[in-house]
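Problem: given the chain below (350 residues), write out its structure.
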Amino acid sequence: MMAPATETLHEVEPILELDRVFDAPAALLFDMWIDDEHIKRWLPILGARITAFHAQVRNGGQWQATIRQPDGTETGLSGVYREIVPHQRLVLTHQFSGGPQTLVTVRFVDLGNGRTRMSLRQVGFGRHDIRDAHEAGWNESFNTLERYAVEAKARLGQPVPPDEKRVLEIDRVFDGPRALVFKMWTEPQHLVRWWGPKGWHLSHCEMDFQVGGTFRCCMSSPEQPEHWLRATYREIRAPERLSFTYANDADGHDMLIVIDFFDEGGKTRMKFRQSVFLSMNECDGHRRGWTESFDLFSRYVLLYLSGGLTESALGWRMGEVDGVEADLDAAQIRAAAARGEQRRPSADKA
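Solution.
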């Protein structure tokens, strides 16, 4: 059932309101709005297709899509996530290239028996003809979504992609003893030197390292100065295992991280597992982020063992733009100078 676009005599701007009932659980429908592989299947209209979709699924995160028409022309579609309440509500800005920026609110109401009422409200069109064009487009997309949701539900047999597919597992070997590798996960003065993908660093880090204790930190970048994370320690078995819950303030979704450390003749094999993500898109994004962090971790272990770095007080890097990469470069230059060698910073490498 669908309600028509509505407006009242008192409204200055035209408003679009659509309402549909889908034969699919709310969790599955919500996932179809944030996962790139799902969106590519149901959003395009009139024979168009999405050739690229990127999203930072968090409050304040950006999303963008490239839509290619049958004649080969391309249109950009982008926005910012304003509010994310998993499986219940999604609020985002929405703008085609050259068009007005509108605000879209999508609500998901569980009707039981695997059925969901999905309501869309969109404002900010400026003109009725633009609103009407969006209404026609959403109707066509939702027709496709209706069919795709039923197919996906039957294919998955579960309301969201199976848990085992929304799990991140990384296996790395580091050139350092197990006790040291474990220690570098447990003290703030170490964490601030390796935690964070390229372009990010920890601007705040506090830790109560005990079972039941909490870990609180803030990741920062030039584009996003505050991205807060929180954790609670579940298991501590030095130097074999560390586990803790993990969530960011943007979506509040709790996951579990389990890290096992294995001694391999002076080296350490670290097996990292994080579960369960809201979507495959989020899982893939964290894979990239952790991989870049662990690349820094590997460099940090070697520099620490060589004496190129000393343990520093928390906050030593506050206000520095370059962050951990610049610090590690400087440490390697100092170590090389102490050996009578010359070494250029990595930024100067070809």
